[in-house]
Amino acid sequence: MSTSLISKHDLLTHWLGHRNLTRRVIEKFPEDQLFTFHVENMRTFADLIKELLSLAVPGLEGIVHQETKPYDHDLPYNTKEALLQAWDEATPQIEKLFLQIPEERFPEDYNLFGQYNFPIIYNILYFIDNEVHHRGQGFVYLRMLGIEPPFFWDREKN
Amino acid sequence: MSTSLISKHDLLTHWLGHRNLTRRVIEKFPEDQLFTFHVENMRTFADLIKELLSLAVPGLEGIVHQETKPYDHDLPYNTKEALLQAWDEATPQIEKLFLQIPEERFPEDYNLFGQYNFPIIYNILYFIDNEVHHRGQGFVYLRMLGIEPPFFWDREKN
């Protein structure tokens, strides 16, 4: 038998901690800059957040219900409040769906969004890594706007 | 018994895949910009890479040998070639040290660098997350320099 490096519960807690930090980064943006500021050939931070929202819950729904719908990054959120509300509404859905995936399915291949055929654990790690990646970009945007980002290591809920 | 969500070998492979991508980002930087370009109140990408180098092998050495030396981000690499060489020399050390950590130690607390007292699995995830975070910032630097970053999902060795 192999010891579990990380439990399902702890991996979920790890992800939710990252989501707390990402929420804090959204909050730091001035409303207008959130939807307008970007580096050439990059998206606004609002668009990056919409990407994250379009992956997490829909991706988990696909995994849980074994459906393979394509994703849609073009979500109808046009204010910081709407974006934060969508973020907060996703949280309990992520918890619920994640906990419905049986541990034995994590090493099984799943064709995420009908496009990415990898073991479920890698799909989940991709959600987290992709969030960390884009949030790191949000840190740079904040610095460019003269705003100090939150602490990277702070994963507590506000 | 709990099923393992991810094996030790697969977690190592996941990290090494990230390191392949990070190496590709270093390579994309023009030599001078690697050591000079930065956003106000942020470090150069070379300095971010030195931070990563100062955490991974020294951190794993601490975990394996149960020592708690402080880290030192101020590494003596002043050329892209030296930085890439240090990156490549770290890879087999990371592999060797990581594989020396018994699976049963991953849930155990370890006081990383004498400062961060968390289960070893979280120390390892921190190394990976911190690399993804800073590499995401490197993507923005590249875009600001008019250079297209590598594909985020490409984790193959060059």
TrEMBL record, chains A, B:
Protein name as catalogued: Damage-inducible protein DinB
A GO term, aspect molecular function: metal ion binding
Family (UniProt): Belongs to the DinB family.
Pfam families for this protein: DinB
Positions that bind a divalent metal cation: H134
Keyword annotations: Metal-binding
